[in-house]
Amino acid sequence: MKKICVVGLGYIGLPTAAVFARAGYDVLGVDVNQKVVDLLNKGEIHIEEIGLPELVKQVVEKGKLKASTHPEQADVFIIAVPTPIHEDYSANVDYVESATKAIVPYLENGNVVIVESTIPPRTMDDVVAPILKEAGIDPYQDVYLAHCPERVLPGRILIELIENTRIVGGVTPEAATKAGDVYRAVVTGDVLETEAVTAEMSKLMENTFRDVNIALANELAKISARLGVNAHKVIELANKHPRVNIHLPGPGVGGHCLAVDPYFIIEKATEESPLIQEARKINNSMPHFVTNQIERMTCELDKPVLAVCGLTYKGNIDDVRESPAIEIAEMLMANSRYDVRIHDPHVRDEQVNFKLSSLEEAVKGAHLLVILVDHNEFKQWDEPFLLENMKTPVIFDTRNCATIHDTQFVVHRIGNLTNLQAIQEVE
Q1: Is 257 a catalytic residue?
Q2: Which one of 183, 237, 361, 369 is separated from 32 by 20 to 30 angstroms, measured CA to CA?
Q3: More confident call, 426 vs 371
Q4: Listed residue (328, 299, 294) closest to 313, CA to CA
Q5: pTM of the predicted model, to two decimals?
């Protein structure tokens, strides 16, 4: 193995390409976005990930990583393109299909073809393999075709690409071994070989497990709001049981995995997945729950000013994919009663279709500070600054992340709304 071609230079493809380049392989990164390609060839990147800017600059300067809008011949092809969902929540595998077709002209006997994109069960056998076969390539004899789903946490991608266990599912046992050897060359974690459909399903169930358990916590938050109970204290005490680990509630579930992957299972086995479907409904309902609480908090005000802090789907990253915070912000802006100012230090203007504010602009004259993301910047606040600038010192912390000491503040948390009272206008 000398040359690797990585198709898709997003949050997974670009770090993957950089890691293989650091290990000494010649890597070509392919993306349809010319801006992404041009940036990479200058040693720069378009996403935020700890350690990645320095690594990319290093491997580009060494000539081990370059980018193009078209593939080239290689020993290994890794497809790492998005798999979003349609409006009906069915999987959109168009990008996977296009990427597979794009590499077909460059495939040679003995090449390893790996799909890292998260995909519905049987996509390798029912979608990817037939594309190769139609092009005259036997997917079971001529090349080694496998699925190796990514399993990394944003903010720790460069660490977890190396240290995490990798699951490699081949359409044949030989393909699993050959693809597994690709990862064994760079990772320190275990590399486990299995069938393609098992690898597909294992990735989906990892994230579905988390989604279902988050739904339980979110449902608890709703029940607690109805009953006047502090859900955070309930969770703290329940988790003292040695076999209980209830998650924390939040404003919803986002990102490219948890908010999407369960639908890939639902699509293939609708009647058999009522629990998974209900969990999705609960988590999807949380933005409405949040906006309803904001309405309760501000119902006595004529034109409440809201300082909305956070747009990404999790803390300390710039990823806004499927973010419930985006949905909440848009719902609030659609209500003409509110004056909404939105701030996120990790998000760039071109990532959203509305105006972003500085922190100073957001909190000036605000009646309510709404925390939607647990960025480090939102965990510790300059409390005198807030008191000086806010109209009323009230905070709604939907991530249960902020530490507030000054007793002049009224802090509501998503799991503890027991003392919620409407904000009164201060002259």
Answers
A1: yes
A2: 183
A3: 371
A4: 328
A5: 0.90
